């Protein structure tokens, strides 16, 4: 068995989601190679080479991979696929974009967003916003799998794999990059943070996030998340959305403020270790999953919390 | 432009699903079914493009049970021109659906396919990307904005770090995210009018496509239940519990 893990990175640093995907690959079992495709990102390849249990790193350095566009990246994965029995990538937005394209080109039905490996061909994945878990066996010869990173521990970094250059694949030239507007933040990345504090519709404005949520986040070293309603209303950027169709998080501590607890939101946070809910409606469904519930007006409770944290 | 919009009949997003006790799947008997919310956004976007004069014709297609005609009619009532149901009572998978959609695209020859990024039942998030791959077309996934510019289409995509804009040659496949638009409710007169719009019904065999699943579902189970915990009375008590009981602060 040989497994190719496609790395997640932004040319500067390797994302932790890659380490977690390697763990899923180890559970499948076999020789594990990592593909790092990007532009001028040798440090990323070097970081990938340190992940424990990796045989080698394939490094494709070319302008066509700089912005992770699906068409050239899928073509590259397909060009390498002959040597592998399984191809894995974290279910990040890049993974979700690229992997189904590669899968279809390989005539493989992808297994999306797995949370457990039962056997090399059998995986568990959430369906219906996580209200059911499906165990599926892939009958395709090759497996193409995306991995829910929060469900796997990160592989360690004590390896020293070799780095091999690979040739870029023919670029189908169907799409081009125009621009990127990335959210700037000093806070930890949402999916990797140990503590997440999320605000809902009840926050009412960006200013209230800034005044009430951000100071607490900064004291706790926490990432800030949000419900769909808060994102739709424009209080915070789209990539703050936690849920079925946003990001999935599983921190040590998740604090939900002014969030009702719709199933679509719960799908993204109910595997957190400890959940705190602050909501003025004692009937709010979020309390059904909260370890600690505080029935209170957030405009009073958050300043108090900020104070109490010193 | 001519637009093709695939739509899926799924469980309504407000329904809490129950897993069947024999672990064969979830219980869909007597459960409210609706158009997949992301597909509604796709239909809305298509209708807006037609209203703006960027598009001339909208064909809506569903692959699913007889009853998926309800969802096609809804799309017609929102403003689509013509419907096509490829009828199958069997469970379908993204790869099979994409293969069938490819055959339909080759027949209909749209300039742009707009579809939902994910169906809220199987949560796969694959079909649009697979269709683009099979057609050899570019893809603009998770769109929060679509603009026609200089003969190409600019798609602003919701990505993990924020937003990315790509330019796609036409024809192309675009999949919708939540922020693209807010779908309209069809008015009563439009619902009446939609009843008279053409809706063809075909069979997968008409396209010579095999929908046989590649994934074998071994079982469907309930996720571990999370028990609700305790209510605290004050912020001070909360902080104390988080520090001394849960040990997370
Ligand atoms: C296809 C689809 C996908 C979706 N995906 C997601 C997703 O990924 N993530 C997501 O979050 N949602 C998602 N949703 C939306 C979801 O269904 C809910 O609409 C959304 O989560 C509600 O956000 P909310 O809890 O902030 O708002 P609301 O439901 O309006 O809740 C606001 C809460 O704030 C409380 N409140 C009000 N004032 C105060 C106050 N002063 N102090 C304290 N509490 C107060 C209220 O009691 C209430 O419980 C999706 C929906 C659809 C249809």
UniProtKB/TrEMBL annotation, chain A:
This is Electron transfer flavoprotein subunit alpha. Belongs to the ETF alpha-subunit/FixB family. Transmembrane segments: none annotated. SUPFAM superfamilies: Adenine nucleotide alpha hydrolases-like, DHS-like NAD/FAD-binding domain. Heterodimer of an alpha and a beta subunit. Binds 1 FAD per dimer. Residues 3-181 form the Electron transfer flavoprotein alpha/beta-subunit N-terminal domain. FAD binds at residues 201, 227-228, 241-245, 258-265, 279. Coiled coil: none annotated. It comes from Amphiplicatus metriothermophilus. One of its GO terms (molecular function) is electron transfer activity. PROSITE patterns: ETF_ALPHA. Its cofactor is FAD. The keyword S-adenosyl-L-methionine does not apply.
TrEMBL record, chain B:
Pfam families: ETF. Residues 23-211 form the Electron transfer flavoprotein alpha/beta-subunit N-terminal domain. SMART domains: ETF. SUPFAM superfamilies: Adenine nucleotide alpha hydrolases-like. CDD domains: ETF_beta (cd01714). One of its GO terms (biological process) is carboxylic acid catabolic process. The electron transfer flavoprotein serves as a specific electron acceptor for other dehydrogenases. It transfers the electrons to the main respiratory chain via ETF-ubiquinone oxidoreductase (ETF dehydrogenase). Belongs to the ETF beta-subunit/FixA family. PANTHER family: ELECTRON TRANSFER FLAVOPROTEIN BETA-SUBUNIT, ELECTRON TRANSFER FLAVOPROTEIN SUBUNIT BETA. This is Electron transfer flavoprotein subunit beta. The lineage of its organism: Bacteria, Pseudomonadati, Pseudomonadota, Alphaproteobacteria, Parvularculales.
């Amino acid at each position: 068995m040989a497994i190719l893990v496609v790395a997640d990175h932004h040319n500067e640093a390797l994302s932790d989601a890659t380490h977690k995907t390697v763990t899923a690959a180890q559970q499948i079992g076999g020789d594990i190679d990592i593909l790092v495709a990007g532009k001028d990102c040798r440090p990323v390849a070097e970081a990938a080479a340190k992940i424990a249990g990796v045989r080698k790193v394939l490094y494709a350095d070319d302008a066509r991979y700089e912005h992770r566009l699906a068409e050239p990246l899928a073509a590259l994965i397909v060009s390498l696929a002959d040597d592998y029995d399984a191809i894995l990538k974290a279910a990040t937005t890049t993974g979700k974009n690229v992997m189904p394209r590669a899968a279809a080109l390989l005539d493989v039905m992808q297994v999306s967003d797995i949370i457990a490996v039962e056997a090399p061909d059998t995986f568990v994945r959430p369906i219906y916003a996580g209200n059911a878990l499906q165990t599926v066996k892939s009958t395709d010869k090759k497996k193409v799998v995306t991995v829910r990173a929060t469900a796997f521990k990160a592989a360690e970094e004590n390896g020293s794999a070799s780095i091999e250059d690979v040739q870029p694949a023919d670029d189908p030239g169907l799409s081009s990059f125009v621009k990127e507007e990335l959210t700037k933040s000093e806070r930890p990345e949402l999916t990797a943070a140990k503590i997440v504090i999320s605000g809902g519709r009840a926050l009412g404005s960006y200013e209230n996030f800034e005044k009430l949520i951000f100071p607490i986040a900064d004291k706790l070293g926490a990432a800030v998340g949000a419900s769909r309603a808060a994102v739709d209303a424009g209080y915070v950027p789209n990539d703050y959305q936690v849920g079925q169709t946003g990001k999935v998080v599983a921190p040590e501590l998740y604090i939900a403020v002014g969030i009702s607890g719709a199933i679509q939101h719960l799908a993204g946070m109910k595997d957190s270790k400890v959940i705190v809910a602050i909501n003025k409606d004692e009937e709010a469904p979020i309390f059904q999953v909260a370890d600690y519930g505080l029935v209170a007006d957030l405009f009073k409770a958050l300043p108090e919390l900020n104070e109490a944290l010193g | 432009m001519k637009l093709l919009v695939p739509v899926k009949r799924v469980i309504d997003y407000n329904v809490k699903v129950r897993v069947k006790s024999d672990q064969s799947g979830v219980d869909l008997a007597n459960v409210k079914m609706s158009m997949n919310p992301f597909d509604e956004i796709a239909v809305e976007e298509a209708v807006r493009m037609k209203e703006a004069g960027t598009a001339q014709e909208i064909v809506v297609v569903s692959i699913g049970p007889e009853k998926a005609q309800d969802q096609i009619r809804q799309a017609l009532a929102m403003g689509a021109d013509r419907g096509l149901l490829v009828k199958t009572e069997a469970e379908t998978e993204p790869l099979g659906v994409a293969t069938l959609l490819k055959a339909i695209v080759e027949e209909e020859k749209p300039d742009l396919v707009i579809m939902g990024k994910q169906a809220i039942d199987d949560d796969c998030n694959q079909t649009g990307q697979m269709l683009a791959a099979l057609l050899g077309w570019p893809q603009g996934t998770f769109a929060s904005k679509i603009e026609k510019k200089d003969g190409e289409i600019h798609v602003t995509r919701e990505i993990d770090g924020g937003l990315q804009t790509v330019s796609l040659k036409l024809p192309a496949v675009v999949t919708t995210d939540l922020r693209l638009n807010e779908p309209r409710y069809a008015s009563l007169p439009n619902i009446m009018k939609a009843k008279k719009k053409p809706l063809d019904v075909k069979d997968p065999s008409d396209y010579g496509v095999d929908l046989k699943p590649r994934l074998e579902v071994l079982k469907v189970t309930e996720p571990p239940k999370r028990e609700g915990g305790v209510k605290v009375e004050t912020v001070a008590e909360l902080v104390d519990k988080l520090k001394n009981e849960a040990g997370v602060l």
